[in-house]
Amino acid sequence: MSVLDHKIPPPIIGLSCAALAWAVSWLTPRFDFDWPLQAAAAGVLALLGAGLDLWALFAFRSARTTVNPLAPGRSSAVVLAGPYRFSRNPMYLGMALLLLAWCVFLGNPLTAVSVVLFCAYITRFQILPEERALLAKFGAPYASYLSEVRRWI
């Protein structure tokens, strides 16, 4: 267990990575590029990310379990419906898509480092500790879910 496990809310991590992407873009303007469908691509990615987040939130609400990522031990059910059929972490995937949308909008390929950092941080300090807590709480059914559904996509 690390001192950072479940300490910083994932949206704060996402916003921090978005700020990092903006800073990278601002500090490296020579790498900026524009392409005809850039805004449209960013919009589509943002809609996909937000839609996935809302779908996952609805699945949690339907299962009447906590959506608090800082307290996975308070979960009352393993959610297997909706987007949880193809990703164990659709809310984080949705956040990553929103961050990718921001990077596409900024038009600087160096900003992609923020998406990589987001995924790495969330995996290490949020997802892995969540998986340990849920495995301890739900046992074999959750272990089966872990073996059947991918962590991200």
From TrEMBL:
It is found in: Endomembrane system. GO terms for biological process: methylation. One of its GO terms (molecular function) is methyltransferase activity. The keyword Lipoprotein does not apply. It is a multi-pass membrane protein. It comes from the Bacteria. Its main location: membrane. GO terms for cellular component: endomembrane system. Keywords: Membrane, Methyltransferase, Transferase, Transmembrane, Transmembrane helix. The chain crosses the membrane at residues 12-28, 40-60, 92-122. InterPro entries: Phopholipid_MeTrfase. This is Protein-S-isoprenylcysteine methyltransferase. It comes from Arenimonas caeni.
